[in-house]
Structure formats: C-alpha cells, structure tokens
Write a structure and sequence with these properties.
Blueprint (H helix, E strand, L loop, with lengths): L4 E4 L3 H11 L6 E5 L7 H4 L17 E2 L12 E2 L21 H9 L7 H11 E3 L17 E5 L5 H12 L15 E4 L1 E2 L1 E2 L2 E2 L2 H10 L4 E5 L1 E8 L2 E9 L2 E6 L3 E4 L2 H11 L2 E2 L1 H6 L6 E2 L11 E9 L11 H14 L11 E5 L10 E6 L15 E8 L7 E3 L10 E3 L6 H18 L8 E6 L7 H11 L1 E2 L31 E3 L14 H15 L24
Parallel strand pairs: 1-2, 1-15, 2-11, 5-6, 15-26, 16-17
Antiparallel strand pairs: 3-4, 6-8, 7-19, 9-10, 12-13, 13-14, 18-21, 18-24, 18-25, 19-20, 20-21, 22-23
This protein binds flavin-adenine dinucleotide.
Family: Belongs to the GMC oxidoreductase family.
InterPro entries: BetA, FAD/NAD-bd_sf, GMC_OxRdtase, GMC_OxRdtase_N, GMC_OxRtase_C
Pathway: Amine and polyamine biosynthesis; betaine biosynthesis via choline pathway; betaine aldehyde from choline (cytochrome c reductase route): step 1/1
C-alpha cells in the first residue's frame, strides 16, 4: 500500500480514525500497531476486566517514577498493547465528561472544542441502549459504531447505592451522559451483547474489511521529517528497521505516554531535554510531555452482613460457572463490568459542577483483582476529578525501545489531600444511610479508627491508586501558546503533515473516564484531517445545580 495517511496506534482514537478516514474509499489508510490480537475471553468477557491489565502480552507495563509525595511509591501505569489499545484492557465504564470540561478546553485555546462543538461528535459515535433505566434519547446517539449499554442492575447493593445518595440529599440522574451529570444513577458501559465493545470491535475491524484500510504489526520508532514536513514513519518489524512513507499525513495516536515519546524521538519537544539525549531538534516545543494529568482513586470497602455480593463467585467453582455461562450464552455476571451504579457530586458549595466521581462495585476487591477482601462486601471507588497536580513524560534514553520516564507528581498540592479527605468523609456518610442498613457491616478500609486528618492522610498516601487516566502530554491550544503542542485541528505546531489525535491532546482532564473522550477526539480529528466542515454545533443546555453557590448537594 502507498498510504495517504499513516495512523500510529490502533487504540481508542486511532481505531476511530481508521474507520472515519477510510469510510468514503477515497484515501489509503495504514495503521501501525505494535500489539497483537484481542481474541479470547480475557479481553472479550467484560467480567474478566482485571486480567489483561498487567499481562505482558496486552500491556506496555509502565510504572511511574518513585512519586515524591507518596513516600516514593511507584504506581502502575498500564497502557493497552493490543488492537483496540487501552479500550481493550480498560474497565469499559463509559462517561463523556461534563459540559463544562469541554467549555474549559475551548477557553484555554482549543477553539472549536466547546461542549456545543463536541456534543454532536459524542452523538455520532454512540449507539445507545438504555435498557429500560431511563435517560433522554434526544441527548444520545443511536446510529454510531460504539455500543453503550447498562448492566442488569439486579444486585440489591447496586440500587442501594443510588437510594443512599438520595437519602443523603443528593440529586439523582437517570443519565449522567445526558442533560445532567450531577447526581446518583446507573453507570454505563461499552459492552454489546455481553461482550467488551472496544474501539477495535466498534471501528477497526469493520474498517479493515475495506480495501483501502490496512494494518501492520510493527513498532513505530520515530516520525521521519524532511525539511520540516513529516513524510513517513520509521518502524521496526521482524528485527528490521524500515521507513514507510505517507503521501499526505502522519497521525500519532499512540497514547498519552507513547505519543509524546515518539514526538521527542522525532526531534519535537523541549530543546534542552532533546539535547541531553543527543537528539537533533526539529521543533522546539516546550509542552511535549508536560501537563501530565491523571485521576487517583481510593476504594472505601464495607463488609456485607448478608451474602448478596459477588463474593459468591470469588472461588474456583464460581469463576468456572461465570466463565462457562458467558462462553455459552454471553449472559450472567461475566457479561457486565459490574460497575452498574455511579455518582458525580460536588465537594462543596461554591463548586459549580461535580468534582468527585464514584464507581460502585458490589464486591470488596482491588481493581487489579489481586486482593479480594475478607468475605461478602462492597466498595465505592472515589476520587477528585480536577487535581491541580501536574507531571511529565520524558525520555529515559534515545533508544526507542526504552520505556519513557513518567512522573505524575501525584498529591503535590495541599488541595489534593483536602479533597481526598472530603471524599472519604462524604462516602462514609453515604454508606451510613438507611438504604445500606440491611447490608452494611464494619468498614474494612480505611477502618473506623482512621478519623483525624493525619490518620486519613496516612491512609491516602499508602492506598491511592491511579484510575489509569493519564492525559494532556501534547496539549491542544492556540498556536501562540508556548506550551501548546497541537493546534485546534490537531496539527503539530511547527511541523507540516503531522498530527496528534488521542488522549495526549486534552488540555485538561475531563470529569470521568477517558475512553469516550479519546474516541471523540478521533472522530472529530478525522473531520479536520479530511478538511470537512465540523458537525453543526448543538444548542442543548446542560443542567446545572440551581443553588451550586449555596449548597453542596
Ligand atoms: C487498566 C485501564 C482501565 C481503564 N478503565 C477505563 C474505563 O473503565 N473507562 C474509560 O473510559 N477509560 C478507562 N481507561 C482509560 C482509557 O481506556 C484510555 O484513556 C483511552 O483508551 C486512551 O486512548 P488513546 O487513544 O489515547 O490511547 P490507547 O487506547 O492507549 O492507544 C494507543 C495505541 O498505540 C499503540 N502504540 C503505542 N506506541 C506504539 C508504537 N511505538 N508503535 C506501534 N504502536 C504503538 C498501543 O499499543 C495502543 O494500541 C482505562 C485505562 C486502563 C489502562
């Protein structure tokens, strides 16, 4: 193939672009992906979500540098290394983000990315099935490739969580991806007919059926730039280094960790840092690798006094039953990610839109499945949405095979600590409501004796984990913003023929999980790449709490 467009990375954004750029048959599209097949239940069965992350076969296996504000802990930074990228190893939770997140993108220089601009793209990508739990179809998309559904919500703990939120005086919302994000309600997942609906299933596999879309399995080392123009990609496959040329453009969609790494290896980045590694500077862009953001979270775990939780399946026989039922019928506990209730709340009066997210799980277990708690239980994952801490991705070496150096600077601001203490205290209040009275036993974690600010801080320092939402390392912004890496059409500033379109370009982390917004970026970037007029802006007005200034809930 003589590709017009080369896309590096078949992840959330890359798959969407493979589909949209090849759809009209006018352009030859080549996707370069280092990871392999996504076949098999470990990836395709939603209930198996804790397995692929951390597996060498599916995960790049990165970790942070010792985090100075967390006592030198290194935190796992999984990134998908498989077709579908991180959408093939993620938790499948589907959240668009809050309208105000995108308005903030626009205000910070990403012109044309306000909520009114991006809402039509969220609708275009979605194929929404509310499963009888409410929600307003006018706010949702019905014909897109990305199936979005909800779990069966059969477990009584799942509905108790929403009821408890209501009893504590919070809003409820029957669709946080619709008009009103704020409140307690059903959580949505990217699954379809009981199967993980990754970006590979939604976009890439259909696209690869077209004669003008191809994928090769190779490791992208750097972008080849001649006289200020990206002309191709240097790859390694089968032990050989070769260059594949692109007639029109190279588009990086290798994730917020690997896209900035590839930019730097290609001579695009902070000049002094490139010089340290002996890399010739093509474009001195101070922002490459900077502005790294993430969500941290904690699990508050309660013991259950009744045998209602998913713990009944947490043994060899139970797992065999779940697996077999899923294999034969695509139903049962294996058909859901089990995140079936959610909440988005504000930490204080005067905060204008939610800054805390909850995922509720009807079992007490670690995300990576490593430690199942003592018996029947349940837990809420909670954490602040807009941490002021910022980190960076840098090269550890000029060798493309070396892992990059990732430092998040987690919890570097006093606000981070105060916000987490608030999360814990608010969660205890929610678990203390009547709705949980039939089920709530003792607090497993942090434990009832952990109460003072100092005690809570010690618990937080030891137990916070990444929610696996790194982003922002090739920020989109105005051309005259020295820290912007791409302009509002995703073009790398200072180089012709090169774009970045993935979670790296988020100016600021949105309120929720990042697969949805990453796919949206791929969708919208495709229109820019093809020179199309963007979809008409929406004039829908999202709900805001009428008394946000005076009331926390
Ligand atoms: C364990 C985990 C759980 C998560 N849970 C959720 C969740 O429940 N809901 C949610 O919305 N979000 C979740 N996320 C986050 C979300 O999945 C990611 O933010 C999103 O998928 C990022 O999309 P992307 O396009 O930026 O990059 P990715 O999807 O990571 O894609 C990058 C692709 O580029 C490829 N690549 C990278 N470097 C090279 C190279 N040099 N050569 C060739 N190919 C390369 C990679 O192999 C990968 O396929 C989770 C993430 C993880 C890791």
């Amino acid at each position: 193939m003589n590709p017009d467009f080369i896309i590096v990375g078949a992840g959330s954004a890359g798959c969407a672009m493979a589909d949209r750029l090849s759809a009209d048959g006018q352009h030859q599209v080549l996707v370069i992906e280092f990871g392999g097949t996504d076949a098999g239940p470990l990836i395709q069965m939603p209930g198996a979500l804790s397995y692929p992350m951390g597996m060498k076969r599916y995960d790049w296996g990165y970790q942070s540098e010792p985090e100075p504000h967390l006592g030198g802990r290194r935190l796992a930074t999984p990134r998908g290394k498989v077709i579908g990228g991180s959408s093939s190893i993620n938790g499948m939770v589907y959240v668009r983000g809050h309208a105000k997140d995108f308005d903030h993108w626009q205000e910070s220089g990403a012109t044309g990315w306000s909520y009114a601009d991006v809402l039509p793209y969220f609708k275009r990508m979605e194929n929404w099935e509310p499963r009888g739990h409410g929600g307003d179809p006018d706010w949702r998309g019905a014909d897109g490739p990305l199936h979005v559904t909800r779990g069966t919500r059969e477990n009584p703990l799942v509905t108790a969580f929403v009821e408890a939120g209501k009893q504590a005086g919070y809003q409820t919302t029957d669709d946080y991806n619709g008009e009103q994000q704020e409140g307690f309600g059903p959580m949505e997942q990217t699954t379809y007919k009981g199967q993980r609906w990754s970006a590979a299933n939604a976009y890439l596999k259909p696209a690869l059926k077209r004669p003008n879309c191809e994928m090769i399995r190779a490791f992208a080392r750097r972008v080849v730039i001649e006289e200020g123009r990206a002309v191709g990609v240097e790859i390694e496959r089968g032990g050989k280094v070769e260059v594949i040329r692109a007639a029109r453009e190279v588009i990086l969609a290798a994730s917020s960790i690997n896209s900035p790494k590839i930019l730097m290896l290609s001579g695009i980045g902070p000049a002094a840092h490139l010089a340290e590694h002996g890399i010739e500077v093509v474009a001195d862009r101070a922002g490459v690798g900077q502005n790294l953001q993430d969500h941290l979270e904690l699990y508050l775990q309660m013991a259950a006094t009744q045998p209602v939780s998913l713990f009944k399946y947490w043994n060899l026989l139970g797992k065999a039953y779940v697996g077999a039922r899923w294999l034969f019928t695509r139903t049962g506990p294996g058909a859901s990610n089990q995140f079936e209730s959610a909440a988005f709340i504000r930490s204080a009066a005067g905060v204008d839109y939610p800054d805390i997210q909850y995922h509720f799980l009807p079992i007490a277990v670690r995300y990576d499945g490593q430690v199942a708690a003592e018996g029947h239980g349940f837990q809420a994952h909670t954490g602040p949405m807009r941490s002021p801490s910022r980190g960076r991705v840098q090269l550890a070496s000029a060798d493309p095979a070396a892992a990059p150096s990732i430092l998040f600077n987690y919890m570097s601001q006093e606000k981070d600590w105060a916000d987490f203490r608030t999360c814990i205290r608010l969660t205890r209040e929610i678990f203390g409501q009547e709705a949980f009275a039939p089920y709530a036993g003792h607090e497993i974690q942090p434990g009832a004796d952990v109460q003072t600010d100092e005690e809570l801080n010690a618990f937080i320092a030891e137990h916070v984990e990444s929610a696996y939402h790194p982003c922002g390392t090739a920020k989109m912004g105005a051309v005259d913003d020295p820290m912007a890496v791409v302009d509002p059409e995703c073009r790398v500033i200072g180089v012709e023929g090169l774009r970045v379109a993935d979670s790296s370009i988020f100016p600021r982390i949105p309120n929720g999980n990042l697969n949805g917004p990453s796919i949206m970026v791929g969708e919208k970037a495709s229109d820019h790449i093809l020179g199309r007029t963007p979809l008409p802006r929406s004039n829908a007005e999202p709900w805001m709490h009428p008394d946000w200034q005076g009331s926390q809930r």
